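go over this record:
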Amino acid sequence: MICIKRIPIYLLAFLIALSAMNSTVDAACSVGGCGGGDDSWLASAQSFISSDVPLVGVSASATAGSDFAYSRSFIAGPQARSTNNSTPSAISPLAEAYVAPGSRDELFPFPQILKSLDALSPDEVALDVSASRSPGKPHIRGAVSIPARSFFQENGSLRNISELSGLLGQAGVSSRDPVMVYSDGFASGEATAVLYALRCLGHEKARVLDGGLDNWMGASLPLESREAARPPKSYIPGRPLESPADYDLVRSGAVQLIDARRIQDFGREKIENATWISPESLLVEGRLKANLNETFARLNANRTVVVYSNEIFGCSLVWFALELMGYDARIYRWQDWQEREEQEKTGILITSDYR
């Protein structure tokens, strides 16, 4: 025990002042509690940012009674850079890099199928094709959800026209609607695979978001967690804008071939004269890299390119990049090649269900 009588008056005054300062600091820790300095502040800030708050710059009066007036989830903009780089890994949402919104059309000769990373127009439908979209999970405002795998059969071939038309119509999408397709991350290939399906249906006003939901969040663009519902519509397919390559075309030698499978698969067996390109090699920070000319330097821009793989998603990424660069690109299934080659050896007719 400290004997107060033996403490000098000036020291006793100092202890009393120090006690008062500590009480003031404790009282100020009301948002998320007090803790270890910057770490605790970041945790409290993230808790607040992730809560339901009005969207900055959105007028509630302009959309009175609309679910779109406010966001159900708000993502912070660019984080101020710390000089000591001591941001704890536990605060990962605040530590993500800021993504500059806007158009990158000048990077690609034919950017018509690429949607710029910026706000949607009022008549544009956001189509979320992420593999799993649990209720209440933040998504782009007004987006309707159709998982990408719903467009394809188990073997990777497209579902028939009536099935695809019914799928889109039931979700409230018509063939006249401008559609922006996206998934959680662009690198999954889900968005590009669905764009391919839409183009096979003749959907002219369909584009893929430049990046995925992760880039949308990094650019601080509006989100919500309330599930969107659109009344069912009649989807009338048009003239196909894309069509799958077939065995005869691939075997003819008249096209350039790209193998988009894993390097191990390419090393074991491939179609003759095929060039291997990894879908991952096309990406930088979740979006297509700026200079694709180097990746496709060996290709002749005047000849059709057929991309094949044993799965549609990685294959569609390469197809999409080729289309943006002005190539006439087609998609082909590796499984169909194997089946047809077996047919050639055994003389047994095998019917492809890819068309």
Remarks:
- The chain is about 30% helix and 10% strand.
- Residues 1-7, 20-95 have pLDDT under 50 and may be disordered.
- The radius of gyration is 27 Å.
